[in-house]
Amino acid sequence: MKSYQAYLFDFDYTLANSSKGIVMCYRNVLERHGFHQVDDLSIKRTIGKTLVDSFSIMTGITDADTLETFRKEYVKEADQHMTANTVLFPETEEVLRALKANGARIGIISTKYRYRIMELMGKIFPEEFIDIIVGGEDVKEAKPSPEGLLQAASRLNCPKEQILYLGDSTVDAETAQNAGVDFAGILHGMTTREELAAYPHTAIFPDLLPLIKK
Protein backbone atom coordinates (compact mmCIF):
# COMPACT_ATOMS: atom_id res chain seq x y z
CA MET A 1 0.00 0.00 0.00
CA LYS A 2 1.22 3.48 -0.84
CA SER A 3 1.85 6.09 1.84
CA TYR A 4 -0.62 8.94 2.26
CA GLN A 5 -0.30 12.47 3.56
CA ALA A 6 -3.42 12.03 5.73
CA TYR A 7 -5.01 9.03 7.40
CA LEU A 8 -8.60 9.71 8.44
CA PHE A 9 -10.39 7.19 10.62
CA ASP A 10 -13.88 6.31 11.64
CA PHE A 11 -14.02 5.95 15.44
CA ASP A 12 -16.37 3.23 16.71
CA TYR A 13 -15.17 -0.28 15.75
CA THR A 14 -12.22 1.26 13.87
CA LEU A 15 -10.06 2.95 16.52
CA ALA A 16 -12.05 2.02 19.60
CA ASN A 17 -14.37 -0.63 20.96
CA SER A 18 -17.25 1.29 22.46
CA SER A 19 -19.79 -1.48 21.94
CA LYS A 20 -20.24 -2.09 25.68
CA GLY A 21 -21.14 1.54 26.30
CA ILE A 22 -23.26 1.82 23.17
CA VAL A 23 -25.29 -1.28 23.98
CA MET A 24 -25.78 -0.07 27.55
CA CYS A 25 -27.02 3.35 26.47
CA TYR A 26 -29.35 2.07 23.76
CA ARG A 27 -30.72 -0.63 26.04
CA ASN A 28 -31.47 1.83 28.85
CA VAL A 29 -33.51 3.99 26.46
CA LEU A 30 -35.20 1.07 24.70
CA GLU A 31 -36.18 -0.65 27.95
CA ARG A 32 -37.53 2.61 29.34
CA HIS A 33 -39.92 2.80 26.40
CA GLY A 34 -41.00 -0.82 26.41
CA PHE A 35 -38.73 -2.25 23.71
CA HIS A 36 -37.52 -5.31 25.59
CA GLN A 37 -36.87 -7.68 22.69
CA VAL A 38 -34.00 -5.89 20.92
CA ASP A 39 -30.90 -8.07 21.35
CA ASP A 40 -27.29 -6.94 21.63
CA LEU A 41 -26.40 -8.07 18.11
CA SER A 42 -29.18 -5.95 16.61
CA ILE A 43 -27.87 -2.94 18.52
CA LYS A 44 -24.26 -3.56 17.45
CA ARG A 45 -25.28 -3.84 13.80
CA THR A 46 -26.44 -0.21 13.89
CA ILE A 47 -23.11 1.17 15.15
CA GLY A 48 -21.90 3.83 12.73
CA LYS A 49 -25.38 5.04 11.83
CA THR A 50 -26.94 8.15 13.34
CA LEU A 51 -28.80 7.78 16.63
CA VAL A 52 -32.09 8.63 14.96
CA ASP A 53 -31.60 6.07 12.19
CA SER A 54 -30.50 3.42 14.68
CA PHE A 55 -33.54 3.87 16.90
CA SER A 56 -35.80 3.76 13.86
CA ILE A 57 -34.22 0.52 12.65
CA MET A 58 -34.50 -1.12 16.06
CA THR A 59 -38.03 0.01 16.92
CA GLY A 60 -39.75 0.54 13.58
CA ILE A 61 -40.71 4.05 14.71
CA THR A 62 -40.63 6.75 12.04
CA ASP A 63 -42.16 9.67 13.95
CA ALA A 64 -39.49 12.37 14.04
CA ASP A 65 -40.48 13.80 17.42
CA THR A 66 -40.40 10.40 19.12
CA LEU A 67 -37.03 9.57 17.59
CA GLU A 68 -35.65 12.93 18.69
CA THR A 69 -36.81 12.19 22.24
CA PHE A 70 -34.97 8.88 22.12
CA ARG A 71 -31.86 10.61 20.75
CA LYS A 72 -31.81 13.15 23.58
CA GLU A 73 -32.24 10.40 26.17
CA TYR A 74 -29.36 8.43 24.61
CA VAL A 75 -27.07 11.45 24.79
CA LYS A 76 -27.82 11.82 28.51
CA GLU A 77 -27.08 8.13 29.04
CA ALA A 78 -23.85 8.44 27.05
CA ASP A 79 -22.72 11.42 29.11
CA GLN A 80 -22.78 9.08 32.11
CA HIS A 81 -21.62 5.77 30.70
CA MET A 82 -19.85 6.03 27.35
CA THR A 83 -16.24 7.02 28.00
CA ALA A 84 -15.86 4.67 30.97
CA ASN A 85 -17.03 1.80 28.75
CA THR A 86 -14.90 2.60 25.68
CA VAL A 87 -11.37 1.30 25.07
CA LEU A 88 -8.98 1.73 22.17
CA PHE A 89 -8.16 -1.43 20.26
CA PRO A 90 -4.80 -2.86 21.40
CA GLU A 91 -2.86 -1.60 18.37
CA THR A 92 -4.52 1.81 17.98
CA GLU A 93 -2.11 3.91 20.02
CA GLU A 94 0.99 2.32 18.47
CA VAL A 95 -0.31 2.79 14.93
CA LEU A 96 -1.39 6.40 15.37
CA ARG A 97 1.89 7.35 17.01
CA ALA A 98 3.90 5.62 14.26
CA LEU A 99 1.94 7.33 11.47
CA LYS A 100 2.37 10.68 13.18
CA ALA A 101 6.10 10.09 13.67
CA ASN A 102 6.38 9.44 9.94
CA GLY A 103 4.93 12.87 9.22
CA ALA A 104 1.36 11.92 8.36
CA ARG A 105 -1.69 13.93 9.35
CA ILE A 106 -4.20 12.09 11.55
CA GLY A 107 -7.93 12.71 11.71
CA ILE A 108 -11.21 11.20 12.87
CA ILE A 109 -14.50 11.47 10.95
CA SER A 110 -17.40 9.96 12.89
CA THR A 111 -21.11 10.17 13.55
CA LYS A 112 -20.14 10.16 17.24
CA TYR A 113 -20.06 13.60 18.83
CA ARG A 114 -16.67 15.29 18.69
CA TYR A 115 -16.62 16.18 22.38
CA ARG A 116 -17.12 12.53 23.29
CA ILE A 117 -14.23 11.42 21.08
CA MET A 118 -12.02 14.16 22.52
CA GLU A 119 -12.92 13.07 26.05
CA LEU A 120 -11.35 9.64 25.48
CA MET A 121 -8.51 10.59 23.14
CA GLY A 122 -7.43 13.43 25.41
CA LYS A 123 -6.64 10.91 28.13
CA ILE A 124 -4.20 9.07 25.86
CA PHE A 125 -2.68 11.53 23.42
CA PRO A 126 -1.22 15.01 23.94
CA GLU A 127 -3.24 18.05 22.94
CA GLU A 128 -3.15 18.74 19.19
CA PHE A 129 -1.93 15.19 18.44
CA ILE A 130 -5.06 14.53 16.39
CA ASP A 131 -4.97 17.05 13.56
CA ILE A 132 -8.72 17.14 13.02
CA ILE A 133 -11.86 15.60 14.49
CA VAL A 134 -15.16 15.97 12.65
CA GLY A 135 -18.03 14.69 14.76
CA GLY A 136 -21.74 14.39 14.33
CA GLU A 137 -22.35 17.93 15.54
CA ASP A 138 -19.97 19.36 12.91
CA VAL A 139 -21.91 18.40 9.79
CA LYS A 140 -25.37 19.01 8.36
CA GLU A 141 -25.54 15.58 6.73
CA ALA A 142 -24.26 12.41 8.38
CA LYS A 143 -22.27 9.69 6.64
CA PRO A 144 -22.51 8.36 3.96
CA SER A 145 -22.63 12.03 2.98
CA PRO A 146 -19.06 13.03 2.11
CA GLU A 147 -19.45 16.33 4.00
CA GLY A 148 -17.24 15.38 6.94
CA LEU A 149 -14.46 13.92 4.82
CA LEU A 150 -14.48 16.87 2.42
CA GLN A 151 -14.46 19.29 5.35
CA ALA A 152 -11.39 17.53 6.74
CA ALA A 153 -9.62 17.56 3.37
CA SER A 154 -10.23 21.28 3.05
CA ARG A 155 -9.15 22.13 6.59
CA LEU A 156 -6.00 20.00 6.26
CA ASN A 157 -5.35 21.49 2.81
CA CYS A 158 -4.72 17.96 1.59
CA PRO A 159 -5.53 16.74 -1.94
CA LYS A 160 -8.07 13.93 -2.00
CA GLU A 161 -5.67 11.53 -3.71
CA GLN A 162 -3.40 11.86 -0.66
CA ILE A 163 -6.11 10.81 1.81
CA LEU A 164 -6.93 7.31 3.03
CA TYR A 165 -10.17 6.85 4.96
CA LEU A 166 -10.37 3.79 7.19
CA GLY A 167 -13.57 2.35 8.61
CA ASP A 168 -15.33 -0.81 9.62
CA SER A 169 -18.73 -0.46 7.94
CA THR A 170 -20.35 -0.20 4.53
CA VAL A 171 -21.42 3.30 5.57
CA ASP A 172 -17.72 4.21 5.84
CA ALA A 173 -16.96 2.61 2.48
CA GLU A 174 -19.80 4.50 0.83
CA THR A 175 -18.66 7.74 2.49
CA ALA A 176 -15.18 7.38 1.01
CA GLN A 177 -16.65 6.56 -2.38
CA ASN A 178 -18.89 9.63 -2.27
CA ALA A 179 -15.95 11.83 -1.27
CA GLY A 180 -13.65 10.44 -3.95
CA VAL A 181 -10.95 9.29 -1.52
CA ASP A 182 -9.30 5.89 -1.10
CA PHE A 183 -10.84 3.49 1.43
CA ALA A 184 -9.42 0.69 3.55
CA GLY A 185 -11.73 -1.60 5.48
CA ILE A 186 -11.01 -2.69 9.06
CA LEU A 187 -12.54 -5.94 10.34
CA HIS A 188 -12.89 -4.93 13.98
CA GLY A 189 -16.66 -4.59 13.77
CA MET A 190 -19.79 -6.42 12.70
CA THR A 191 -19.33 -5.99 8.94
CA THR A 192 -17.82 -8.89 7.01
CA ARG A 193 -14.94 -8.80 4.55
CA GLU A 194 -17.39 -9.70 1.77
CA GLU A 195 -19.69 -6.80 2.63
CA LEU A 196 -16.80 -4.32 2.60
CA ALA A 197 -15.33 -5.80 -0.59
CA ALA A 198 -18.48 -4.84 -2.50
CA TYR A 199 -17.24 -1.23 -2.40
CA PRO A 200 -14.13 0.32 -3.95
CA HIS A 201 -11.20 -0.27 -1.60
CA THR A 202 -7.43 -0.31 -1.54
CA ALA A 203 -7.28 -3.00 1.15
CA ILE A 204 -9.26 -4.81 3.82
CA PHE A 205 -7.28 -5.40 7.00
CA PRO A 206 -8.00 -7.53 10.08
CA ASP A 207 -6.80 -4.61 12.22
CA LEU A 208 -4.77 -1.39 11.95
CA LEU A 209 -1.27 -2.91 12.18
CA PRO A 210 -0.72 -3.36 8.41
CA LEU A 211 -0.62 0.44 8.16
CA ILE A 212 2.81 0.41 9.81
CA LYS A 213 4.07 -3.16 9.30
CA LYS A 214 5.86 -3.67 6.01
Automatic annotation (TrEMBL):
PANTHER family: PHOSPHOGLYCOLATE PHOSPHATASE. It catalyses: 2-phosphoglycolate + H2O = glycolate + phosphate. The keyword rRNA-binding does not apply. SUPFAM superfamilies: HAD-like. InterPro entries: HAD-like_hydrolase_sf, HAD-like_sf, HAD-SF_hydro_IA, HAD_2, HAD_sf, PGP-like_dom2. Pathway: Organic acid metabolism; glycolate biosynthesis; glycolate from 2-phosphoglycolate: step 1/1. This is phosphoglycolate phosphatase. GO terms for cellular component: cytosol. Belongs to the HAD-like hydrolase superfamily. CbbY/CbbZ/Gph/YieH family. Its EC number is 3.1.3.18. One of its GO terms (molecular function) is phosphoglycolate phosphatase activity. It comes from Phocaeicola plebeius. Keywords: Hydrolase. GO terms for biological process: DNA repair.
